[in-house]
Amino acid sequence: MNINDAQSIKQVSNLLKEIGIPARLRILLTVGKDEVCVCHLEAALGMRQAYLSQHLMTLRKAGILITTRDGRFINYRLADPKILELINLTANLLNVVLKDQQTNQANKRQCACPRCRQMNEVAVP
User: Fold this and answer.
1) Does 2 score more than 80 pLDDT?
2) pLDDT of 17-35, one tens digit each?
């Protein structure tokens, strides 16, 4: 990338701006390498659906998240897993440790989507 290429600089700046909001970072870390629904994110992050939806829409419009539909449930996943590498590299640069945002089993039990319900049925002995 040529530092005089204004368009390239603008693209990088926009990406960093879109993921730089703490709630969005938490969402991206929770999604991780999986595919999750909004109700799963609600349970995992303790955020209201309306608040989550605003951030999810922004991340989707920016091309950071992509969606699939499963009946009435919309599932989100990273468009490119390298975004996690960027987040972790930034954390390493700052000498901070990001907690694993993957949800614990208790949060999964609170989620009512078919995917989480199926995972819970498999996990229950």
Assistant:
1) no
2) 999 999 999 999 999 988 9
* Structure confidence by residue, pLDDT tens digits, 30-61: 999 889 988 889 888 999 999 999 999 999 99
The first and second tokens of residue 5, run together, are: 């290429």
Helix, strand or coil, per DSSP, at residue 70: strand
Which domains are delineated in the chain?
Answer: 6-123 (1.10.10.10)
Looking up tokens 């970072």 gives: 25
| E strand or H helix at 77 | strand 73-78
42's CB contacts (< 8 A; 6+ apart) are 48, 49, 52, 111
Write out the H or E segment, with its range, that includes residue 123: helix 114-123
